[in-house]
Description:
Blueprint: E1 6-13, E2 19-20, H1 24-28, H2 39-46, E3 50-51, H3 66-75, E4 89-93, H4 104-112, E5 118-122, H5 128-141, E6 147-154, H6 157-160, H7 166-171, H8 173-178, H9 184-190, E7 196-203, E8 213-222, E9 231-232, E10 235-238, E11 241-244, H10 250-255, E12 262-263, H11 265-285, E13 297-300, H12 308-317, H13 331-334, H14 341-350, E14 360-367, E15 372-380
Parallel strand pairs: 4-5, 4-6, 13-14
Antiparallel strand pairs: 1-7, 1-8, 2-3, 6-7, 8-15, 9-12, 10-11, 14-15
Helix pairs in contact: 3-4, 11-12
Amino acid sequence: MVKTVYINRVSAYLPHEPVDNELMELRLGLVGDKPSRARKLVLRSNGIKQRYYAIDPETGLPSMSNAQLSAHAIRGLCDDNFVLDDIDCLVASSSQPDQVMPNHAVMVHGELGNPPCEVVATAGICLCGITALKYAWMSVALGESQNAIACGSEVASNLMRASNFTAEYDSRLEQLEKRPEIAFEKDFLRWMLSDGAGAVLLQNQPNTRGLSLRIDWIDILSFADQMPACMYAGADYVDDELVGWSRFSAEQRDQQSLMAVKQNVKLLNDNIVKYTVVEALKKIMAKRSLSVDAIEYFLPHYSSEFFRKPLEQGLAEVNLAIPQECWFTNLTSKGNTGSASIFIILEELFNAQRLAVGERILCYIPESGRFSSAFMHLTVV
């Protein structure tokens, strides 16, 4: 028998103090000791006013690992009524784990130090947070676990610090003297991504005191059968084929900043709403009952305020024109934290004491990696 599952606690962790737009290049560093020409353009478009970095503001060095960031968020779920030793299932996700092996989740488990339990990692980009949540939900729903924790975390700053681009800059010095900036596809994301972690506690009973969020359904779709890779790291295109890092020499990896996160901005702008909103919702609405008057809150994870209007138009195209007053997002104040974003948005709403029993929440999580999308429906109980 499938059990009903409830989100009973939500936690977020953002490292250090917020970094505003004027300080961020100082914190990340100047590539080639020259300010970025793209920074102001990208920031004007994305609308982000501040974000957080796991970078020591005094030394400029990384201050904590991705696993440590996750552990901070998970500890935020605990109190006298639920302790780490109670965890049945732990599912952790990140697009940028601290190492290739072992997986991110077991490193988080090691940081927490709780007794043996089921530990699972999910991979991806923005979507891996919701895939972690779906695994945790299914584990509790099937009765395999009494409770489960799902976590998403990102330390994007590790890949965006200027020192990561030194070898490429030095190898292309003559070319860069004529055009003194790294490729826009790499520089673009330095001003888009930031650090943070979020976690949820799922249980098979609602809270006895206070509100819970009943998980009604989670639908995830990939359009990789139709679309090429749009956002990638540890790879590069060679003759229109995405080639992984292991097929490049160590020198090539350094000189091309191969591990940097790259974004095909035109491909993103032309297709992200078409596939992750319109085409995804056409399939979902064919099997789910969704209507504007049955949604009190819409929680979209989008990377930039640039996409707010296109997203609104995409929803209208499938007859789901959710009014802007129902939208809840904290992109401009918390930044784009990838897989952690939906948890960080949900944490602010859940703990703001503004929800009421019976209200319905629709969450939207797109991923531009190769165009995937997730929608999650919750009911306040």
